[in-house]
Specification:
The protein is mostly helical. It is built from nine helices and no strands. The chain is globular, with a radius of gyration of 17 Å. The relative contact order is 0.19.
Length: 257
């Protein structure tokens, strides 16, 4: 009965393979969409951050105020966190002059702090507990920091380690496969593994997005950021329609971590 009650109250989707596919597409869209505004439109990182921060606030308020799970609203909020995460990370890494190491360290501290405060306040950071506006606040704050950190990590890996965007994507893809193997073949905390996978999908999406839209001389495919973003939006909407999502919790059903 408790699991059924949580599922009825939850406004986050059940964590399935479809969830992870849409998550990767959404994070890739965050990179191409963020770059389209800051670079292709020449608005800069600060203006881009203000625009996407406003979009995130509107989407998060609507999501928190909704009475039940709405997949379109949920994924709009996720995309909003990825786009503002892209511009915030670029602003910190480049415009503020603290570099990839400084930006990643700052964002990691903010992410760990968010998770620590959430766990101290609620006793768990499991997505199964995201059933009240208070917990939703922790949930979306943590996601925002994780998306921003993921952008910084993706850029750091691709730009400073000689791997390029394709090599960076392979590294983060392999890391996600390791987390999946730990999920299926070990008894490690499902909640910890969920957040590890969730965080790693962002740098994967960031490097794939850069691979798609960066110029050839920088190692990308040179696709139009507008075109790439439009294709990703259509793909996300198609997946939501073809594979309907329902409210739920982590497949393990565990709520402690």
């Amino acid at each position: 009965m408790d699991d059924a009650r949580h599922a009825a109250l939850s406004k986050v989707p059940e964590v399935t393979l479809g969830f992870w596919i849409v998550k990767v597409l959404a994070t890739t869209l965050g990179e191409t969409g963020g770059d389209a505004v800051t670079m292709s439109m020449n608005l800069g990182y600060a203006i881009g951050t203000l625009i996407f921060a406003g979009l995130f606030l509107v989407a998060a308020i609507a999501q928190t105020g909704a009475k039940k799970f709405n997949p379109y609203l949920y994924w709009l909020t996720i995309v909003a966190t990825t786009t503002v995460g892209t511009t915030m990370a670029d602003l910190a890494d480049r415009s503020l002059g603290i570099g990839y190491a400084g930006g990643s360290s700052l964002l990691l501290a903010l992410l760990l702090g968010s998770l620590a405060v959430w766990r101290w306040s609620e006793g768990s950071v499991s997505v199964a507990t995201v059933t009240t506006p208070r917990v939703e606040g922790f949930y979306w704050t943590t996601i925002l920091f994780s998306q921003t950190l993921g952008t910084a990590l993706g850029d750091w890996m691709a730009d400073t380690n000689g791997l390029g965007f394709g090599g960076g994507a392979m590294v983060f893809g392999a890391a996600i496969l390791v987390v999946a193997a730990l999920y299926f073949f070990t008894g490690l905390s499902r909640v910890a593994l969920f957040w590890a996978a969730f965080i790693l999908t962002r740098p994967l999406g960031a490097t794939v997005g850069d691979l798609l839209d960066k110029p050839h001389d920088l190692g990308g495919f040179g696709l139009s950021r507008y075109y790439a973003s439009a294709v990703l939006i259509v793909a996300i909407l198609a997946l939501i329609v073809l594979f309907p999502q329902r409210a739920g919790s982590h497949p393990s059903g565990q709520t402690t971590a």
